[in-house]
Amino acid sequence: xxxxxxxxxxxxxxxxxxxxxxxxxxxxxxxxxxxxxxxxxxxxxxxxxxxxxxxxxxxxxxxxxxxxxxxxxxxxxxxxxxxxxxxxxxxxxxxxxxxxxxxxxxxxxxxxxxxxxxxxxxxxxxxxxxxxxxxxxxxxxxxxxxxxxxxxxxxxxxxxxxxxxxxxxxxxxxxx
Length: 176
Fold this sequence. Notes:
The chain has one domain: Nuclear Transport Factor 2, Chain: A, CATH 3.10.450.50. It contains five helices and six strands, in the order αααββαββββα. The protein has helices spanning about 5-20, 25-35, 40-55, 85-95, 160-165, and strands at about 65-70, 80, 100-115, 115-130, 135-145, 150-155. It has a six-stranded mixed sheet with strand order 2-1-6-5-4-3. It is globular and about 40 Å long. The N and C termini lie far apart (about 40 Å).
């Protein structure tokens, strides 16, 4: 691992540990801000996409590059790596949205950057087609190039996701 890779890995690791432990200290914030100087535009692009998602006028998936790779970590029904935008939208996002009566709305808890990666910890809530709420907490690691997401790694509560995925059938006309 070269020095630049080690530094980037260290920054991502510190951000992940802070997100998981909820221990964002002033010292970490100062270190994180050093990493954000060159990437503030990426952070703003992601924040704007989340604001549009919450308002129902857009969202982060519109930022996906055609060849973006999306990895869902864990053992959920959707876990795996999707090699491009269309496979991810077709296999995860459209079937997910087809299970919702009221769309998922995110609330960002924390947003960090390290080099060209934006890390977002957020809660999302919506109402499923069966009238029950779906709520989950997510952490996404979004690598951007020229304002487009080229790589993403997602973590979430797979038990809540799988329960929802099994319980609610997608509306047939919107699942495609």
